[in-house]
Amino acid sequence: MIKFILIFLLIPQFIFADKHVPYYKSLSKTESWLRHYPDLRDFKEQTEKFFLTQKGMPVKVIQEHQSVGTNFIDWYRIELFNGIQGWIFHNQLTSKRTLLVLEDTELFAWSSDDPNSWMTIVKGEIQAPKIIDLLEVKDDMLKVNIKISDRKEIKGWISRDQRIWGDDLREEDFD
Q: Is 38 in the same domain as 118?
């Protein structure tokens, strides 16, 4: 009887489990609060965990929460590049994909980092830490856009490795 009850309780979790998590988003504001739990009602009761100040910072969504009375996901449990986790309100995130360069990395003109290939042309080096826009994903390379100023940007390819945070190797398309 206990086995039957356990199976009955666990089946809905597997059926309705969120199969698409984790995935990446980025911060949409220059000021965002990371909270201990998903609740807007008690701003003054120590729910704030961290104050995030870097617009465009990539975050990993690890859980979604729909509050009672809403018909959309209004809270996201996120993880930052340093492992810190917390809840953030939906309007603090955007689906725009960005990456965080953790260590200096080369920027290539084409999607090749093979030193023996004639297509391997190094355009320059990206100095860490740097937030860059993700444009395209290939097996071992990422096409990125680096904003230099309001009117100048550089596009190129970087290697898909541990120097970059905000990319999942299982990810093929990030729309």
A: no
